[in-house]
Amino acid sequence: MAKNPYVNLSRRERQIMDIIYQRGTATAAEVMENLPDPPGYSAVRAMLRLLEDKGYLRHEQDGPRYVFAPVLSREKAKQSALKQMLETFFNDSTEQAVATLLDISKSKLSENELDRLSNLIEQARKEGR
Q1: Less packed terminus of the chain by CB within 10 Å, N or C?
Q2: Across 70-86, average pLDDT
Q3: DSSP string covering the chain
């Protein structure tokens, strides 16, 4: 199984994973229908097999078709990718990562979003004691 999903995927592999996460499961034909500028059917099948070999996908056979599903839930994949990003770019510092995110999106955050973030910080303080 892939240790840190999404970290080492190509753009096209991420697009395929996004489609499968959105749908829950998908066949090669369904992936191809949802890809922007899709390659040929055999290329999509090859990419799905590669993602399976890398440990991101699994498949079940449904008659003649393979139906692909993610190995990890989207939530687990997000957590794993963020953990890798924290370790790689922020020296495992949640504070530095949050500060960077706030700096990037400070003009985009609504009052409600800022209030929710404050509440999450307050909850973390209480749980940390």
Answers
A1: C
A2: 83
A3: --SSTTTT--HHHHHHHHHHHHHSSB-HHHHHHHSSS---HHHHHHHHHHHHHTTSEEEEEETTEEEEEESS-HHHHHHHHHHHHHHHHSTT-HHHHHHHHHHHHTTT--HHHHHHHHHHHHHHHHHH-
The domains of the chain are located at 1-89, 92-129
Rounded percentage of the chain residues whose pLDDT exceeds 90: 52
pLDDT tens digits, 23-61: 999 999 999 999 999 999 999 999 999 999 999 999 999
**H or E segment at 110?**
none
Question: What CATH number is given for 1-89 in this structure?
Answer: 1.10.10.10
The C-alpha atoms of residue 114 and residue 120 are separated, in whole angstroms, by 10
